[in-house]
Every structure is written in structure tokens, then in C-alpha cells.
Design brief:
The chain has helices at residues 19-38, 40-65, 70-102, 107-121, 132-135, 139-153, 160-173, 177-184, 187-229, 234-244, 250-267, 270-295, 303-337, 343-348, 353-358. With 359 residues, the chain is mostly helical. It is globular.
């Protein structure tokens, strides 16, 4: 563990939070949120490029170790990443568009589902009808909403040039920290700063690489299982499982429930729908346990904070913001944990502070 810089605590001597600091923090959050919302066209590609840089950095380091020139390695990585993202984005958009176009054809089956649930659970005898929303469900509106959501979600594909320009500069600028720190600070300060930054970078990189790899395997397993069953739009549900994997707990529920609902509608079989729900949930939970084992320790984020983060980033950037919300929250926690003045915030972000304190 690298040595950390000394700094004053942000907590007052009587144990309470400094009121002025709290007010200043709220004002800062408001200003930052306003800037993030207004600067979305530029900042969203930058965040995408930053996450990509963390994920592909191990490949860049490997290529440099085997004597590939940095410029050539960066160009190769950017080209391969561009191709993979473009193909995945095109596949998801085209499949999602086809799925949205087919939804109105399932309107009668939605009504049959409502009737089945009412008969099974005797809901018709209740004054309050919890399934009333299914009766009034307008499939055409759902299709329109999905089509309008797909466009913004992959709108960055229309300006991939900006994303990969950011990525090129980020990758090309790696490795210059040592020289810059030596010029800007004393030898001892430069050593401490390098240690902190390198430790944070390693932790963030490890988290994002493992999370992305686990999500990819989850998506592939989901797609394969649904294809074996013959469920329509298996690829869409697989890509959905990959993306929702970045959202703990809630992501696994939605990634399992939506294909299960589709299975019931397509096959008219409650047992098959339950099978889909159970298998997909087990896949998600199993991969989640594997991720914690590989990571060595979970980030243990507070569920309330995760929920607030989803709402906040969803308000800022829509669906893309919700996908990036938890990775951003995890990065913030990692950074705070490694900076003494911010470590109390890291502990407050945990659901169990004592566990985090031992990690």
C-alpha cells in the first residue's frame, strides 16, 4: 500500500460535520450536476473514452512489453475497439428496433396474460386492481418509447470520432505522470503522488476489466440459453443482460424478468416462463459471486446510494447515464478510499463500514 499524503480532517472536533462544508458541498454538487447536464454532448463521449481506456490499458501495456512501438499499439487498440463497439452497437440497435416493431403484435397476448394472472390469483375479487395497468397498456406507446430510447442510447455512435479522439489522447498520454510529478513537486512529494495515483488507477482498472468480462460472459450465457429455448430476440436480451450487469441487484432482476415475460407471451407456458426466470437469475447471481471472488473483495456500495445514483445520472444523461452510474460511483469510492481527507466519504458510501474498513 503506497504512503498517503497528510491532510486535515473534514470533521469537527466535537464529531459533527462542519455546517459550512456541508452547504458548500451541496452547492458544489448542484453546480457540477448543472455542468454535466449542459455539457453532455462533450462529457459523455469523454466518459466513454475514459472507461474504454481503463479496460484496454492492460492490452496496451502488454504490447509495449513485447516491444511494439506505443504509437502502433495505440492505433491497433483504437481500431479494434472501434470495430467491436460499432458492431455491437449496430447489432443492438437493429435488433432492438426490430423488437420494438414487433411489440404491438403481442397486444392480445398481453391481455391473455392479464386474464390468466387475475384468474390464478383471484385478483378480480379485490377492490384495488394491481393489474389494471396491464389492461390499459398501450403497446404502440411502448414501441415508440423503446425506439426513442434506442436512438439516444447509441447516439455516440454518430460521433465515434470524438470518442476515439479522446481515447487516443488518453492512451498516448499514459506514462507521463512520473516526469510531470518530478518537475512540479519535490522528490518525496512526487513519489507519494505517484504511489497514490498508480494505486487508484490499478484498482479502478481491475474493477472495470473484471466487471466488463463478467458481464460479457453473462450476456453470452443468456443469449445461448435463450437461443436453445427458441425465444425470440435472444440477442437483444443477451446484450441487455450485459448492460444491466453494471447495475447491481436491480440489473439482475430486470435481466431475468423481461425474458421470462417474453417466454410466457411467446409460448403461453407459465412453467417455461418460471424456468427462464430461474435459470437467468441463477446465471446472474452465479456470475456475481464469481466476480466478488475474482475481485478479492466487493465494493459493498450502499443500496440507497446506488438507487440515488441511478436516478441522478438517469436525470442527467438518460439511459446511458443509468448504465454508467454505478461504475462512476465505484470509481468515486475507490478514489475517496485512497485519499485520507476523503476516506470518511468512502466509509459512508458502504452498506457495512466495518467490512470496508478491513479491506
Amino acid at each position: 500500500m503506497p504512503r498517503t499524503l497528510k491532510s486535515k480532517t473534514v470533521v469537527s472536533k466535537d464529531g459533527g460535520w462542519n455546517f459550512n462544508l456541508l452547504v458548500g458541498g451541496l452547492v458544489a454538487v448542484f453546480i457540477i450536476g448543472l455542468i454535466l447536464r449542459l455539457a453532455q454532448p462533450v462529457l459523455f463521449p469523454f466518459f466513454v473514452a475514459l472507461f474504454l481506456a481503463f479496460i484496454v490499458s492492460p492490452v496496451l501495456d502488454f504490447l509495449i512489453r513485447i516491444k511494439v512501438p506505443r504509437a502502433v499499439a495505440v492505433v491497433l487498440i483504437v481500431l479494434v475497439t472501434f470495430l467491436i463497439l460499432y458492431l455491437l452497437g449496430f447489432l443492438f440497435y437493429s435488433s432492438g428496433k426490430s423488437f420494438a416493431g414487433e411489440i404491438p403484435k403481442y397486444e392480445k397476448k398481453f391481455q391473455d396474460l392479464t386474464h390468466y394472472l387475475r384468474q390464478t390469483f383471484h385478483i378480480t375479487s379485490l377492490e384495488w386492481d394491481p393489474l389494471g395497468w396491464l389492461t390499459d397498456l398501450d403497446t404502440n406507446r411502448i414501441a415508440s418509447f423503446l425506439l426513442s430510447s434506442l436512438g439516444p442510447f447509441f447516439s455516440f455512435l454518430t460521433n465515434l470520432v470524438l470518442v476515439f479522439l479522446f481515447l487516443i489522447f488518453i492512451l498516448a498520454g499514459q506514462g507521463n505522470l512520473r516526469a510531470k510529478a518530478n518537475v512540479a513537486y519535490t522528490k518525496e512529494q512526487a513519489r507519494q503522488i505517484r504511489g497514490i495515483v498508480e494505486h487508484i488507477t490499478h484498482q479502478v482498472q481491475r474493477y472495470l476489466v473484471i466487471k466488463t468480462a463478467v458481464n460479457l460472459v453473462t450476456g453470452l450465457l443468456t443469449t445461448a440459453f435463450l437461443m436453445i429455448l427458441g425465444l425470440d430476440f435472444a440477442v437483444v436480451f443477451g446484450l441487455l443482460a450485459f448492460l444491466l450487469g453494471y447495475i447491481p441487484h436491480l440489473g439482475a432482476v430486470f435481466a431475468s424478468a423481461v425474458p421470462a415475460l417474453m417466454a410466457f407471451i411467446q409460448f403461453d407456458s407459465p412453467l417455461l416462463a418460471l424456468l427462464v426466470l430461474a435459470v437467468l437469475y441463477l446465471i446472474n447471481q452465479g456470475m456475481g459471486l464469481l466476480e466478488v471472488k475474482v475481485q478479492g473483495v466487493g465494493l459493498d456500495l450502499s443500496p440507497l446510494l446506488v438507487f440515488f445514483s441511478l436516478i441522478f445520472w438517469g436525470w442527467l444523461w438518460g439511459i446511458p447515464g443509468m448504465v454508467l452510474a454505478v461504475p462512476i460511483l465505484a470509481i468515486i469510492k475507490i478514489v475517496c478510499f485512497n485519499i485520507p481527507v476523503l476516506k470518511p466519504f468512502s466509509l459512508m458510501m458502504s452498506s457495512r463500514a466495518e467490512k470496508h474498513g478491513r479491506s
